[in-house]
# Entry
Amino acid sequence: MRKIATAFAGLALMTGIFGTSDAHAGREPAQEALENRNKDLSPDVVQNRFFLKEGRFEITGAGGYVPNNPMVTRFAGSLFGAYHINEKFAGEFAFMYFPDLGSNDLKGLTQKLVEIANNRSNQSNFEQPVEKMLLDASIAGRWSPIYGKINVIGENVLNFDFYFTGGLGMISSKKYYAYSDGEVISLRYTGRTTHVPLNAGLGLNIFLNQSLALKLDARSFIYRAPAPIYDPNSVEQQNSYRIYNDIVTSVGISYFIPAMKPRMMDF
# Structure
């Protein structure tokens, strides 16, 4: 009886030593992989990203508006293009066209200034200088530091990313003088001008599927140019410069080529 008990004790001891070692050896590769993964993850990374932009072209058609021009109304048709170097950085170009609708572009403030000046006996020949942006072409870099997901309705989840842009551009504009022609406000064309602005902006891509995204974009074009000239005979006005800031807000649809590859795994 004592021999049987001793045999069982020895067998239990051998099983504990070798069995535990084998079980640990079987789990070691998976455990090591998880530990290495946790070490590699940076703390600001959002997991389960289901859109990947790296190596893809993005083409965007958009409609825009200039909200901060007090004298004339400017609407834009825009074309944006970008190549995504990786998930955070991209190079892009932008082309914007602003149609010229003549005196229909004049805002109420311009018309009121002309009317008030012409109602005064000493200001009967007053003309209000205005400038209309016609074309813009620019190149920029894009940085997308923030991305995430929006739960819209029920189980519908939309992915988004938030980006900043910065670069250089060229603006072509027409210069006019608004004046009173009896009861009608008319425009006198004086020539074209070109500006080279710094542009900076921000935007949001809301991904509708693996190929399409809704784009919300706002850009600021900052440049130095001559101040408005009210008196052509004034040397001081002719030599005066100021800083301008034209802001263009846009809404459009982006198309990614080829379609973005979804992430298939949780880790």
Q: What stands out?
A: The longest helix spans residues 2-40. Residues 1-38 form one domain. The first strand starts at residue 57 and ends at 65. Confidence is low (pLDDT under 50) at residues 11-27, 42-46.
